[in-house]
Design brief:
Elements (H helix, E strand, L loop, with lengths): L2 H23 L5 H4 L15 H4 L14 E2 L13 E3 L5 E8 L4 E5 L4 E4 L2 E11 L5 E2 L2 E2 L2 E8 L5 E10 L4 H7 L9 E8 L11 E6 L10 E6 L3 E3 L1 H8 L19 E3 L1
Parallel strand pairs: 1-7, 10-13, 10-14
Antiparallel strand pairs: 2-5, 3-4, 3-11, 4-6, 5-6, 6-9, 7-8, 9-10, 12-13, 12-15
Bound molecules: zinc ion.
The site of zinc ion has 4 residues, from strand 6.
Length: 263
Amino acid sequence: MNAKSFTLMACGLLLAISCKNGKKETTTTHEQTKHEQHWSYSGETSPEHWAEIEKNSDCDGKHQSPINIIHKDTDSSATKNNLKILYTPTTLISKVENNGHSIQFDFETGDSINYKNETFYLKQIHFHEPSEHRINGIIYPIEMHLVHLSKSGEITVLSILGEEGDDSELFEFFDSFLPIENGASKDIHHNIDLSSLFKGNNNFYSYNGSLTTPPCSENVNWVVFKQPIVLSVEEVVKLKNNMPLNNYRNEQPLNDRVVTLNY
Ligand SMILES: [Zn+2]
């Protein structure tokens, strides 16, 4: 056994131990938490193996996410913007957690969006580094998922891609709660104004897909904003340092789906 394979084995052992701990501490928070002990972004439990290790999941389904959005193939024939962001400037963040897969900010129920004439409530925001969705094959340094749930259990995720440039006040705020250890959470109970995410950002792609983490359920309305937001390299790096390396799922086949361009 060379030094490299020993290190890999030691890492595997460490993962197994932390997974056991994760299981013990898991409470009845939400669906994704229940699965966090089984899967990962690397090695034998990486995305390529999710369908085999998550037996009752949709991970091998035909309408999976993320996808590569090819602009010229999108349908813009009869579409208009049917999304209303109804966040208030006093959106209340309740806590931040490191769930071992991402950094996640949880919200008090209240703020919502209206999409396709249905109300969806903002539950949580988390991050992927680099992006999961691609636009015309381009991978962005970061992707932010704003997860919303309707009263009937339908999910709408707003996806905002990030490119590197000037500082973002919003990401300064997110980063101010870091570092946070794997499995730990911190109470916040603080107002946040998310409006900067949507300034001049009216065009978006939409399609029917899935959760990008097990159980990969195929009941997700995806809204991917065309225009990325700008944040600094340092802000990306701070998030990256608190998440598993490359916490993204690879591109999934579009199959019979059509991506719509809304404007
Ligand atoms: Zn996500």
